[in-house]
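Fold this sequence, please.
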Amino acid sequence: MQSSEIRTRFLKFFEARGHKIIPSASLVPENDPSVLFNTAGMQPLVPYLLGQEHPMGKRIADVQKCVRTGDLDDIGDNRHFSFFEMMGNWSLGDYFKTEAISWSYEFLTNKEEGLGLDVSRLYVTIFEGDENAPYDQESKDIWMSLGIPENRIYALPAEDNWWSPGDNGPCGPCSEMFYDMSGDVGDLTPEGFAEANKKETVIEIWNDVFMEYEKANGKVIGKLKQKNVDTGAGLERITAVMQGKKTAYDTDILSDVMNLIKDNAKNYSEKLARVVTDHIRTSSFLIADGVTPGNKDQGYVLRRLIRRAVFKMSVLEIDSHLAERIIDIFVDKYVSTYENLNSEFIKNIWKEEENKFSKTIHESYYIWFPYRINTRIG
């Protein structure tokens, strides 16, 4: 199943269950100076999670563009991407755990409307409870009523199964779904499950967050005016599962670019190719959403991404013009979903920053090695 079909199926599934489909917000948050980018599907919806009435009603669904750049050094492994799409369905004071869990399960396992995943390869986690909220027996009971064996439901602490956007805002316990990537893992003890997750034998594919609490200055201060549901399923992760791949770099989302780099690199490295692929995709979306390279805030992040990509391409020994072909591939792949992607505009911004970076490198080299520069030039 191609990524575009997964995206479409998700939205149709929840539309058929009373959800209004809303477009992705910009990567640059509106009226939220606390973050540089929308890093999760819930961030553009915080006012409505806190009780403000949404113009589209109490049930909505979307696929939100997200950027996270706090762990750039991890880019290149199987899990981390600086840009990703988060599929989400939302209840703003409407349904709660029963519907959220049941629909998550149904979409993942139903062949006609959903993804048709093998139920025997599913594992579930719930919140074990602490001073802020009790053990989530209700979620456990719902999962068992759907047929998930008790020995495949694991109670985990807040560091694993409590979600919040930071030190302030709506938050709550969550229930996560994991999938056996090999097909032969079978039953696991809690210790075995933790090890399998660490080794990526089983991976998280969905998260249901039950937002009924509010955090201020890092502490849970009480309950919200309404109970909300915030679900998240990363399109890249789901696509890898559906296509039997260990990482999204091998799926239809990114494999075209990875192959192009491999065919053109004189000094090929899988990890560096992944970094270049990731950074060019992220930069393209940031530029399309109005970010330009600069020395602070969003502009600084974009500048860093472009320059990291250009440097990695030089290590790979790739002609810098290949970046323009990669931008074209991404625009062609995504423009039907995100119409603001304009290939020529993105390439112009990219080339301008690339030229500035090249000039900076040349000037720095001249300062440190003036004799060598003068000899080569003159």
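The chain has two domains: 3-245, 255-372. The chain has a mean pLDDT of 93.
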